[in-house]
Specification:
By secondary structure, this protein is an alpha+beta fold. The protein has helices at 14-20, 42-61, 86-90, 124-135; strands at residues 9-12, 29-31, 94-99, 118-122. The protein is elongated, with a radius of gyration of 17 Å.
Amino acid sequence: MRCLSDHSVFVQSFYLDREAGRAPGDGVHKIYPGAYIKVFDLRQCHRQMQQQAAAAQAAVVAGVIPRSGNVGGGSPALGVLAGLGVDDLRRLCIVRLSFVKGWGCDYPRQSIKDTPCWLEVHLHRALQLLDQVLHTLPLQEHTHIL
């Protein structure tokens, strides 16, 4: 991302959180005018999806976390992964931006929806990879993941 504006852009990015050593979704990153910064990495996102889905399934199989049924009446592959929902994994595929005004714990606006101009970018290829990850999880007799 390159900020060509005279004003800062504020970004919520799991990639930037990881690079900054913060908890995922924990912070909003200020991109100064004239700055150029990477805000998303498809390979890292895909690895994270695979790791989180595998860890959640392993926890279910090991009995650490109770198994969950399907959500939304959709495909069984879209079931809840041991307390880690599909929406949690989908958030890895989203970058949120606001222009001029920041939000979150460091700003008076607690939500991006409180900023005058914002957008949410759903990264299509990352969402395709998420679908593949969910559909390639091995079927286990003791789980309802697939």
